[in-house]
Design goal:
Length: 148
């Protein structure tokens, strides 16, 4: 699957690199990645609109270690898919159309609505389990930015 939902456990919601870094440091990382990879969504190829820098985390479910593996540039819609929980909340407030988000998932992955629903249910189940734990965070090579 090209575009997958990735839900961050609620116990580490407020300690992403994005939240920990000063805005200007984050923007510097984002701009350097845009220069290096080009200004386009690395998942669907979209070139219009704002490109979001998305943190890629891996999860060691045995030892409860969350590790920052790197970044991916995402268009607004792909980013909405990644953070589908937040998108659901924003849809309830009328800030976005949830149907557009599910349609984008199906278009990029070339799949049906049923596949989307199943993938979403699995992602929420994993999120529920992972949110029961405290996670040790490993910022890997990006820890240097936190020391600046
Ligand atoms: Zn995209």
């Amino acid at each position: 699957m090209k575009l997958e939902i990735e839900l961050v456990p609620s116990t580490v919601w407020y300690s992403s690199l994005y939240q920990l870094l000063p805005k200007e440091v984050w923007n510097k990382i984002r701009n350097s990645i845009i220069l290096e990879r080009g200004r386009k969504c690395q998942v669907c190829g979209e070139t219009m609109g704002v490109m979001n820098l998305h943190e890629i985390w891996s999860y060691d479910d045995m030892n409860h270690i969350q590790k920052l593996e790197g970044f991916v540039l995402l268009c607004r819609m792909c980013h909405n898919v990644k953070h589908i929980g937040l998108s659901g909340m924003r849809a309830m407030k009328g800030e976005l159309n949830f149907e557009d988000v599910s349609r984008h998932f199906c278009k990029v992955n070339g799949c049906s609505k049923a596949v989307f629903e199943k993938h979403k249910a699995t992602a929420f189940e994993i999120w529920r389990l992972r949110s029961q734990h405290q996670w040790m965070q490993n910022f890997g090579e990006y820890a240097q930015y936190l020391r600046q």
